[in-house]
Structure to design on (707 residues):
């Protein structure tokens, strides 16, 4: 068992997959000589050469679309889009083409590609560089959208994404790159895309999150355990396909739920989860579902404003405690 | 290569001094040397081109009819008037070469090798259609014949075609990719980004612009700051050639030369085929934005009629032969329509068959009125 960072887990897995399959190639801005804006592709150019590790010009639509075409001919490109904010330049190729050619052509061609892209606020980058717009992609059938929250999951999910025959958007989070976790040595596990995970069992309340908020939810659960509050944590892991059943099963057991998300509240992932709980566990609910989400503003640069706008362990804790007192459960 | 203009990469293209040319200036009607060109050809090949052009013509006419009878839904963009370009371009490709096109794709699909029956069945939205009824008019696709799709988003095909050429080059293959597009498409970002990548990475691809001088109703010189479209690769050091797209032999020759250059040099090329669509942008467009003169000029330069005329004058197309070809084409189109008519509509139970290639846990298979969670 080794303790490594989320960044290292991605890097190791990517290298292993490149070594395993000649059809896997990397495309993206600054991934070669510069070794990646966030250093996920460090050492790759040296190891695999220019044929397989291709620096692209700043032309997101061009190179994401080129990956779609290359995938249609059987390559398995892994594209790095520097941050999810720039993926919007390529949104036509992602939504209109990568997601559609399999269905639109009656199953004759698939698009086995991965788009890796980090997102998330908290870095004081201002409004255009601090967005969680995964919802745009999670809305679209034909895409798979996954969001690992731990190093072990990052490895298992990236492995699954590279080997999958469909276009997979893998969301990384700037706030998680340096987070550490245990990854079993020689682990070769491949995650099942579309499965949520109960990352901690509990009986008082269900706390649901993904990516950075799934990791924050675990922290909160650990802290609350010291106050004798038993929190069950569900990490969604996959935003499309979405594993509603695991969420609903958990809420049927605990009777109440809080959803923590790093995106905006209105129409956000939490809205979908709350609606699913309403449809699947209405009779079991002792309190309304609470949602902890980003403040609905373009994210400011100034640190105190930015910090206040983002959901945190504290804001999750508050929502959990308020929900529990509403149902008459004793809270410390 | 007679009757072509060239823009060498690296800025050696002759400047037009900013003068906008009218459509008349830029189209080079039937090249004067064509009769002798016909004389140099094998009669069987000429008759075959003629037959292929006529097949596109009759197929599209039938398609237009079926559309107005509501047998075909959606949008419907025809190749009427562009038959010589379609056939000339497709003659330049080897079976192993790949093709991407825009939504004006029926003729290309047929002459890349798909059966007219299956193309028509796709138009009817039936199970025997090339995409089992999932694509429709704008989205013909066939793995086997390497027609990698018509695409309904203007310019959407360009990055993908470029990426297909990247895959070919990655594997060291000797196929080339042809990417067809319209004149209006040369103004979208995907065009510029694709050309840049193709040139930087030395990809074996030919971008074939069908310049019918209009994007829907907007004239090319109202939309392109450089309306000599074959020159538009010069910023990317991509050589461009313009050819009269109403002359099947000229298109075939120019395209073949560029396709073989792209293959041997592993470089991208641009081919501009000046053309004219005889009807509106789509079946429902009455083309009111066109003047009487334009329409009259187009009719008098109908590529099918002009080629027929040439072949008759050269003694290649006799009355008997003409009738024989007309009859066989008519039968083939009627057979395609019958086939489409008799092919079943897809069963609703197949609705969820093509969302993902790798099956996934928790894929939603919910019909509109179904509850999300079964009791
Ligand atoms: C991105 C995008 N914008 C607009 C349209 C609507 N549209 C469909 S065809 C067309 C004209 C394109 O003209 P051109 O590229 O010259 O091709 P042609 O129709 O002449 O073959 C337009 C504007 C579209 N399909 N996609």
């Amino acid at each position: 068992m080794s303790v490594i960072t989320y960044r290292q887990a991605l890097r190791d897995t990517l290298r292993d997959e490149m070594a395993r399959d000649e059809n896997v190639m990397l495309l993206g801005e600054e991934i070669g000589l510069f070794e990646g804006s966030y250093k996920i592709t460090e050492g790759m150019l040296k190891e695999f050469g220019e044929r397989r590790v291709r620096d692209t010009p700043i032309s997101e639509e061009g190179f994401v679309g080129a990956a779609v075409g290359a995938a249609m001919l059987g390559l398995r490109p892994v594209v790095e889009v520097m941050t999810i904010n720039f993926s919007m330049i390529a949104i036509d190729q992602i939504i209109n083409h990568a997601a559609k050619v399999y269905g639109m052509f009656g199953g004759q061609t698939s698009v086995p590609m991965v788009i890796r892209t980090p997102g998330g606020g908290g870095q004081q980058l201002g409004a255009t560089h601090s967005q969680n717009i995964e919802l745009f992609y999670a809305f679209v059938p034909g895409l798979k959208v996954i969001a690992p929250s731990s190093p072990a999951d990052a490895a298992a999910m990236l492995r699954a994404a590279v080997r999958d025959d469909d276009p997979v958007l893998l969301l990384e989070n700037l706030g998680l790159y340096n987070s550490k976790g245990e990854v079993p040595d020689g682990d070769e596990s491949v995650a099942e895309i579309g499965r949520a995970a109960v990352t901690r069992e509990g009986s008082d309340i269900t706390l649901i999150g993904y990516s950075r908020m799934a990791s924050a939810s675990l922290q909160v659960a650990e802290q609350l355990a010291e106050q004798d509050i038993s929190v069950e944590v569900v990490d969604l892991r996959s935003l499309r396909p979405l594993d509603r059943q695991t969420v609903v099963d958990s809420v049927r057991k605990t009777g109440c739920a809080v959803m923590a998300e790093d995106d905006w509240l209105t129409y956000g992932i939490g809205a979908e989860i709350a609606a699913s709980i309403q449809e699947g566990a209405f009779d079991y609910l002792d309190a309304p579902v609470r949602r902890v989400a980003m403040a609905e503003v373009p994210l400011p640069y100034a640190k105190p404003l930015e910090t206040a706008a983002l959901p945190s362990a504290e804001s999750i804790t508050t929502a959990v405690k308020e929900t529990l007192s509403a149902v008459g459960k004793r809270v410390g | 290569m007679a009757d072509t203009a060239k823009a060498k990469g690296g800025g050696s293209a002759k400047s037009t001094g900013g003068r906008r040319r009218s459509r008349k200036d830029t189209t080079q009607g039937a090249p004067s040397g064509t009769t002798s060109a016909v004389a140099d050809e094998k009669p069987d090949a000429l008759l075959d081109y003629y037959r292929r052009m006529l097949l596109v013509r009759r197929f599209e006419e039938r398609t237009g009819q079926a559309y107005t009878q509501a047998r075909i839904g959606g949008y419907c963009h025809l190749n009427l008037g562009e038959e010589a370009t379609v056939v000339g371009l497709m003659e330049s490709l080897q079976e192993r070469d790949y093709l991407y096109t825009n939504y004006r794709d029926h003729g290309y699909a047929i002459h890349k090798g798909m059966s007219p029956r299956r193309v028509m069945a796709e138009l009817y939205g039936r199970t025997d259609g090339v995409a089992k009824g999932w694509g429709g008019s704008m989205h013909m696709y066939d793995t086997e014949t390497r027609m990698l799709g018509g695409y309904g988003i203007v310019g959407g095909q360009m990055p993908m075609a470029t990426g297909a050429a990247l895959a070919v080059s990655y594997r060291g293959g000797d196929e080339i990719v042809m990417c067809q597009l319209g004149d209006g498409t040369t103004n979208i970002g995907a065009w510029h980004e694709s050309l840049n990548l193709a040139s930087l990475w030395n990809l074996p691809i030919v971008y074939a612009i069908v310049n019918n001088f209009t994007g829907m109703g907007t004239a090319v010189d109202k939309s392109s700051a450089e309306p000599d479209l074959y020159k538009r690769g010069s910023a990317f050091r991509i050589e461009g050639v313009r050819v009269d797209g109403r002359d099947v032999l000229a298109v075939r020759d120019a395209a073949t030369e560029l396709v073989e250059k792209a293959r041997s040099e592993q470089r991208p090329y641009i081919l501009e085929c000046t053309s004219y669509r005889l009807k509106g942008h789509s079946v429902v467009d009455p083309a009111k934005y066109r003047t009487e003169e334009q329409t009259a000029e187009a009719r008098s330069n109908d590529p099918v009629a002009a080629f027929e005329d040439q072949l008759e004058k050269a003694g290649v197309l006799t009355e008997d032969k003409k009738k024989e070809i007309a009859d066989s084409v008519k039968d083939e189109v009627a057979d395609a329509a019958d086939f489409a008519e008799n092919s079943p509509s897809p069963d609703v139970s197949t609705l969820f068959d093509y969302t993902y290639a790798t099956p996934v846990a928790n894929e939603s298979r919910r019909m509109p009125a179904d509850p999300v969670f079964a009791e």
Observations:
- Chain A has a mean pLDDT of 97.
- The first strand of chain A starts at residue 2 and ends at 5.
- Chain A touches chain B through 58 residues (CB under 8 Å).
